């Protein structure tokens, strides 16, 4: 299984400094052994160069002299990722359609697909070439799944959901459950039927147990190459752009529009019917109740620009003290005025 | 498939202003075509009346003159919902019990139920007439499910869970997992076995991947017509009333009592052993650590009345400036006193 | 089914005060009937002693005289838990491997395991003695599960996940989905393959729909006897100690180290690459962006020591008033200086 370091360097297009060797794998500076490659991307870990046992390190030219062997890189984290790819292997070992899967006769499953036991594909659903459905996946009627997708165990696509090519849906993802649409009336809460769908672009990854609701009318959409972490909630009729990074436990309420290249940190929450511009970054736990123009970096509840938020955070713990000082000032000023009046 | 507009008007009991037409569907003012019905409920969208291509619009009498055809309504959003119902169709196309389902011989499944492949129904479980279980559903022993319910894929009812009639459980819902009950002791953390159950009323809807834990003793309960969104957590022994609206990612800790007609916005969190009165509304991300009397609208952490919360929010970003001004005041006052003493 | 109270007292090693009786079950002071045992652990419920119909009460010696029959305990909540255990019964009634389960020929399932229909066990996976897999569970290739574990419905272990003995995984748990590792580049967002695994100790309980991601390299780990509630997110390469209590909807970002005996309350969020010391307690909704030394109790965002946090919370609603008073002070002081200058 071992590969030669020189072959890896060639494959990644990186300059090798030092002798060739056999490579067993990739690891952190702290844990790597003499037959493993590691990397230095974060300056915080420079001190570990002195003690690492790694056989080779992917790093910038500046540090190439400090390690046994270097693969010199302009972007060590990216090249580390590319290097890891050489050692990664797909999960699952099955190929073809397992007899314990259940595929409706009116579904179309392309050649080269893998369908595990206990996966279900409904009428008129279409599954593209090379796509893999793990056990417990549900693909409702009229769904369309592109080529080269992976649906990990128990991923659910309700009727009419469309996803592009090369998407990864982690275990327990639910796409196309009904949006939360109700009208309170004097005779009880009435449900607004949700007759829209969900449309996901290509090269999208969606984390475990994340939920994206179907639109009330029209579509809830996610653009190409957007990456969504675990346990995220995306409400009905949200329109999200491409190349976004949405971290775990974020919630986005119905009908909000999110631009391209938007980053939302963990546990942020966005109200409904808003517009979040291209390139916006939201800090962790941010609470957004207003539109945000393109390019802003925001934090806090209510979300404000990052500078203001960081300053507010630093003052927060002083609040009790501020209150006391305010009271003292009032007292002193009153005394002073009293004195002045006399 | 097309229906006549006049038939729809008659069915909804609405007054039609304008000529009859064939109706293909329902859509937003922005997206509707000339063969579709749209609606105006939110004043924010009045300007779209001028440009909409919709063939007909459900709106109040005030706006009936501004559109090609109007269905005049006293509650346009509600009547829009009723109109959508005419075009909605149930998900799933199967009927009867599929041979790849697994039903314990000691379970009782009523006539007219649909049980998809890979659904499991345990001993002594009872499933009412017309109820549909999608693939991957688990119904534990001694569960009871009423008439006309829908359990979407991978919904899980642990042993003894009871749900009423006409309930909708979205994909990945988990009812009746053990509550989080542990006692730290000098010899380790001890588990308190959770021997209670979960009881859900009728006409309840529960969102995808939401979890409601079984009681330690007695029941965790949810009242009739309460609607719960995705990824909500409801702890053991919570007693929730009817007609509540619980938005996504809310967490309610153990033994808290929630009244009727309570609304909780997204990501709110409620501590345990509290009492939340009838008709309370909680804002997004609210953090509740005290009882709330009936009828209050609250926001923030700690949750306070809405007026105070909104004023606090508006002051928050001024905090760094306030701190500077406080320091300056102290300095100026000290100088003044110094001067006065001289 | 009834047991004698004297037998229960003997089994728990508690002193019985009062006559013997038949015991039908365990219940709260409020709900218990004359054939049930209840308990008094929280002083808040002392007033209920006067009205309870419970046949016997587990309580400290101080209250033994106030109830019909007492089981005298130094730790009533713990002994209540032990008493409940006597009446608890395991969920599920199946034993052996069901013919509708799917087990790869290269998997090793020990004697005495129960495998429900629609559970899947992949190649080279190992399942220890007495472990139970409910319907819809997925155990990927090369996974290892210890003895006496319970995997409730639809629990998912992606390839290579290791769990110890006597663990409980509630429904919908996902262990070993890919961590959220991406590099934004000028030519698009690149995925860093996640080739590490997840390792869970023994006696660990993990709540419904909780997700724990696989490491990018090495392992994401959870120590012995840690208990995790529902809908929690644990990122890649987190290293969590033993005997921790992690309440619902907490999120822990990648590479953070959490010590032993740490408690995190609901909806807390921890940034990545941090170190949280042994015995730390985090309040609900806490937002942690810095290392926390051992033994601290922290709350708020940014998390500060509990005393400061509680004082800050109490001042928060006064903020609008403080702002007004600050403005008034400035005005008054200006007038005073004006006067002084004249």
How do the strands and helices of this protein lay out in sequence?
The structure is a homotrimer of 342-residue chains.
Chain A: E1 3-4, H1 5-12, E2 15-17, E3 22-23, E4 25-26, E5 36-39, E6 56-59, E7 70-72, H2 76-87, E8 102-103, E9 108-109, E10 114-115, E11 120-121, E12 126-127, E13 132-133, E14 138-139, E15 144-145, E16 150-151, E17 156-157, E18 162-163, E19 168-169, E20 174-177, E21 182-185, E22 188-191, E23 197-200, E24 205-206, E25 211-213, E26 219-222, E27 227-228, E28 233-234, E29 239-240, E30 245-246, E31 251-252, E32 257-258, E33 263-264, E34 269-270, E35 275-276, E36 281-282, E37 287-288, E38 297-299, E39 304-305, H3 306-315, H4 319-341
Parallel strand pairs in A: 4-5, 5-6, 6-7, 8-11, 9-12, 10-13, 11-14, 12-15, 13-16, 14-17, 15-18, 16-19, 17-20, 18-23, 19-24, 20-25, 23-26, 24-27, 25-28, 26-29, 27-30, 28-31, 29-32, 30-33, 31-34, 32-35, 33-36, 34-37, 36-38
Antiparallel strand pairs in A: 1-3, 2-7, 21-22, 38-39
Describe the structure.
Three copies of one chain form a homotrimer. The longest helix of chain A has 23 residues, at 319-341. In chain A, strands 10-13-16-19-24-27-30-33-36-38-39 form an eleven-stranded mixed β-sheet, covered by helices on one side. A ten-stranded parallel β-sheet of chain A has the order 8-11-14-17-20-25-28-31-34-37, with no helix packed on it. Chain A is built from four helices and 39 strands. The first copy, chain A, is of the alpha/beta class. In chain A, 15% of the residues lie in helices and 28% in strands. Chain A folds into two domains: 3-87, 3-Layer(aba) Sandwich (Udp-n-acetylmuramoylalanyl-d-glutamate--2,6- Diaminopimelate Ligase, Chain: A, domain 1); 102-307, UDP N-Acetylglucosamine Acyltransferase, domain 1, CATH 2.160.10. Chain A is flat. Chains in contact: A-B, A-C, B-C. At the A-B interface, strand 21, strand 22, helix 3 and helix 4 of A face helix 2 and helix 4 of B.
């Amino acid at each position: 299984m071992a590969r030669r370091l020189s072959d890896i360097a060639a494959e990644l297009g990186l300059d090798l400094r030092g002798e060739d060797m056999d490579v067993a794998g990739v690891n952190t500076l702290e844990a790597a052994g003499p037959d493993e490659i590691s990397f230095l991307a974060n300056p915080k870990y420079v001190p570990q160069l002195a003690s690492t046992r790694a056989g080779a390190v992917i790093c910038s030219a500046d540090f190439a002299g400090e390690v046994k062997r270097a693969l010199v890189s302009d972007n060590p984290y990216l090249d580390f990722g590319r290097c890891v790819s050489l050692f990664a292997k797909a999960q699952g070992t099955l190929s073809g359609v397992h007899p314990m899967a259940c595929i409706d006769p009116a579904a179309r499953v392309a050649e080269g697909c893998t369908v595990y036991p206990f996966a279900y594909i409904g009428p008129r659903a279409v599954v593209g070439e090379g796509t893999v459905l793990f056990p417990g996946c549900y693909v409702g009627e009229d769904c369309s799944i592109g080529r080269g997708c992976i649906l990990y165990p128990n991923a659910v696509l309700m009727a009419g959901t469309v996803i592009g090519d090369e998407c990864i849906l982690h275990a327990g993802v639910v796409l196309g459950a009904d949006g939360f649409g109700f009208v309170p009336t004097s005779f009880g809460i009435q449900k607004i039927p949700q007759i829209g769908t969900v449309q996901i672009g290509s090269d999208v990854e969606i984390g475990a147990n994340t939920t994206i609701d179907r639109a009330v009318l029209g579509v809830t959409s996610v653009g190409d190459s957007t990456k969504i972490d675990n346990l995220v909630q995306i409400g009905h009729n949200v329109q999200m752009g491409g190349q976004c990074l949405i971290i775990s436990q974020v919630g986005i309420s119905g009908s909000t529009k999110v631009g391209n290249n938007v980053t939302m940190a963990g546990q942020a929450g966005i109200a409904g019917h808003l517009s979040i511009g291209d390139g916006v970054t939201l800090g962790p736990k941010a609470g957004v109740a207003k539109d945000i123009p393109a390019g802003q970096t925001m934090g806090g509840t209510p979300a404000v620009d990052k500078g203001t938020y960081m300053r507010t955070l630093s003052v927060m713990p002083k609040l009790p003290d501020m209150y006391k000082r305010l009271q003292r000032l009032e007292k002193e000023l009153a005394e002073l005025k009293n004195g002045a009046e006399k």
